[in-house]
Amino acid sequence: RLVQVSKNYRSVIRACMEDMHQAAISARDPALHSQYSTQVSILSAIELIWNLCEILFIEAAAAGPLLLRLLDWVRLHVCDVDNMVREVLSSENPSKHKLFWNVVDVFVLQGRMDEARHLLSKEASADPASMNMYKILDDLMKKMPVPSLSNTQTLTEMELKWQHWHEECQRYLQDGTFASNSHMESICKILLGDEDAILQKKELMTTWYHFLVTRLLYSHPTVKPMELRFYAQACMDLFLGGESSPEPLDTILMAAFEFEMHQVIKECSIALSNWWFVAHLTDLLDHCKLLQSHNLYFGSNMREFLLLEYASGLFSHHSLWQLGVDYFDHCPEYGRVYLELHIERIPLNTEQKALKVLRICEQRQMHEQVRSICKIMAMKALRNNRLGSALSWSIRAKDAAFATLISDRFLKDYCERGCFSDLDLIDNLGPAMLLSDRLTFLGKYREFPRLYGEKRFSEAAKLLLMLMTAHIAPCSFWMTLLTDALPLLEQKEVVFSAEQTYELMRCLEDLTAGKSEKQKFQDDDAEAMKVEMLRLALARNLARVIVKEGTLEGS
Amino acid sequence: VWDKSENGDWHCTASWKTHSGSVWRVTWAHPEFGQVLASCSFDRTAAVWEEIVGESNDKLRGQSHWVKRTTLVDSRTSVTDVKFAPKHMGLMLATCSADGVVRIYEAPDVMNLSQWSLQHEISCKLSCSCISWNPSSSRAHPPMIAVGSDDNSPNILAKVQIYEYNENTRKYAKAEALMTVTDPVHDIAFAPNLGRSFHILAVATKDVRIFTLKPLRKELTSSGGLTKFEIHIVAQFDNHNSQVWRVSWNITGTVLASSGDDGCVRLWKANYMDNWKCTGILKGNGSPVNGSSQQGIFNASLGSANTSLQNSLNGSSASRYFFPPLDSPRAGSRWSSHAQLLPPPPLIEHSCDADTASLQYPHPRRRCVSRPLNLLPENEGV
């Protein structure tokens, strides 16, 4: 449930705090130490705020009386006095400790009646003369009605009981029962909710919100959440007493007491330099449907705004960007477009990272981004002359034009060097071969040297012919193919059938006819000679094959 | 040209002299086209450069080689800006010159960077100082280019003009002129469009200005429709207190950076109520200006004397100084168009002039000039 989520957040914050604390303690460098200490203090503040928000906004009425929860909160977070308490309790004779009464006061102020009574009993045993006083005080403290967790009593019952108890305390005070012991008298006054008496213990409370809770405990224990605002400001003013002005933390807490959720978020945004806190708190409040009570667009859009900001920040980190992706996924309005913009900008220094990014894009059908990233990687590979890598990227990008370009480069390489690079890749193209005509040609043509090498001449011949007649081969390459055919034509055994030879001749004629007069003029001798040689070889082959085919077998 | 190494340091990997006059601007093409740069200069030329991957030795020595692919010599005066068009338009760039001519070139074969053809020549009648392409790839509107002028002539003509490509005439035509900008303009920049129906344009002039341009129904003229725009100024800041020279947007168009003669870089951001505010000030060396946090009321000291670390850990410290001064975004390394800013101090604000009737994000009908926001108790002692 949402409260559990909130508690999880808080335990994470506390865990961070612990780590920071450890780091701070072990830091040698004073600058580092102070940096860590700062972090600890910030974390502690946000945990404080979050806890209060949890109590006031998220838990609501379900978890029991407000005051008890606020008491818990105060006890948890205001512990400057813990050292003192420990010191007194662990001393040999607590009641003789000079800070004894301070500790008792602390317990009373925090509503820790049992502990207070326990301490008092020690004192009582040490000072039998005041036994009577102790008994009365102890009794009062024992009988103090507190709002209970279980709903065994109604509010009215509780208030009635409390009224009686209050009057009883009043009587004892007025009778002067505690007159001889100023400590006990002040405790009694505190029990009665006497503002001045409580205020006197300022240093023990240390903060105005402690003062607020204490005051409420002893004057309005059945306070309801919505009533807090009436007391909060007054308490803060009294406590600060005009000597100091509210700190940012104070303003935030005040806004929380006044149930001004938007104000809380606003103040936190100003005070904190990191979006983490406001983004997650707002998100949680939004899930609790608490922000919508103000105004529909306000609430959900503020959540998205904060999450977008937070996630954008994550993208500048070399590995946390992956978290950013998830955050964007949860922003219904602008998440996708933000993701599209950010993901294209992630530096792709390794192929692994590129693949990771691509997977994310493909999962979300971000086709344009996939294409763009693949194109960038392909270009990078091409520039570094890694043709195989470039080809596989362009296949992934489904970029036919680029694939064609790279295939041309492969073919050019082959013509220059006589062998193919990245043969593995070409062999395993599979259906990707069909991406572009040139690529298909490359994939199939690659077979030729192999077939020739394996002396499978008729198959090689068939391949060559097929490439030309099926128009898979680009015209520019025909000359090369025909030249490839030369050795086959010159074989002792006739390789090409008559029909095939006619086909070849036609191809050659098509090729030469296609050239304009001007081109023919510009053709150098080598070119012309090649054509002549081909014509001759073809004619010779034709002659041989006609004879062969004409000859009856066996006769 | 500087490259960033593995450990985050920037090293100069190439440096060469080529133009015969001051080089005014330099700009990157989209990485889809490879590693390509364009430069423009006082010597009346613009040039396109490509990085050539050289010998492996060079890589080790940290050197890269750049080759000039083409020189564009059509201009008769100093070429003051050069910008590549958004990648969806192909490999295209625009230049503008001091004689008021904007030229748009295209390389039809993206693999051949030496062939560029002049596609359009636009005469702006004012000396041009800067141009900006609208980066939006939405098909809802045609290609658009903004031109700024630093003309000092006494006629008070609008110094920012918007040109739009007309499908029917196949030409660029002037769609709009920002009449309110009458001071010389030094830089201009469209913000990335996040699927908004309107455009955002930043102008660097004697102050920083941000405009929204909302396309209205196209006017049906015989030449087939030029878009009319509803123009609003959504922000105007004179914090630089001097000429503003450059403006630049972040990736999402949510943060604007400006630089001025005061030697500072200022960052501007809108909260979700579309109110723009300054979120950071950086000095020339990248260090933040003291007290440049959102509200300078924080006390710098952390903790009073009696705060112990242990107390902090267990609960609120006795001291009430909780939040140390905000870290302004650290500039760290140089800006590259690909750098994303660290989250700056945020800006949630309940603006009293919030239009409660139409609380819809974004606010296309945001109106009125906001007063120059001088909220910050800046220490301008540089």
TrEMBL record, chain A:
It is found in: Nucleus, Nuclear pore complex. It comes from Buceros rhinoceros silvestris. InterPro entries: Nucleoporin_Nup85. Functions as a component of the nuclear pore complex (NPC). The keyword Transcription does not apply. GO terms for molecular function: structural constituent of nuclear pore. Belongs to the nucleoporin Nup85 family. This is Nuclear pore complex protein Nup85.
UniProtKB/TrEMBL annotation, chain B:
InterPro entries: Sec13/Seh1_fam (IPR037363), WD40/YVTN_repeat-like_dom_sf (IPR015943), WD40_repeat_dom_sf (IPR036322), WD40_rpt (IPR001680). It is found in: Chromosome, Centromere, Kinetochore; Lysosome membrane; Nucleus, Nuclear pore complex. GO terms for molecular function: structural molecule activity. It comes from Buceros rhinoceros silvestris. This is Nucleoporin SEH1. One of its GO terms (cellular component) is lysosomal membrane. WD repeats lie at residues 237-269. Component of the Nup107-160 subcomplex of the nuclear pore complex (NPC). The Nup107-160 subcomplex is required for the assembly of a functional NPC. The Nup107-160 subcomplex is also required for normal kinetochore microtubule attachment, mitotic progression and chromosome segregation. This subunit plays a role in recruitment of the Nup107-160 subcomplex to the kinetochore. GO terms for biological process: cell division; cellular response to amino acid starvation; chromosome segregation; positive regulation of TORC1 signaling; protein transport. Keywords: Cell cycle, Cell division, Centromere, Chromosome partition, Kinetochore, Lysosome, Mitosis, mRNA transport, Nuclear pore complex, Nucleus, Protein transport, Repeat, Translocation, Transport, WD repeat. The lineage of its organism: Eukaryota, Metazoa, Chordata, Craniata, Vertebrata. Belongs to the WD repeat SEC13 family.
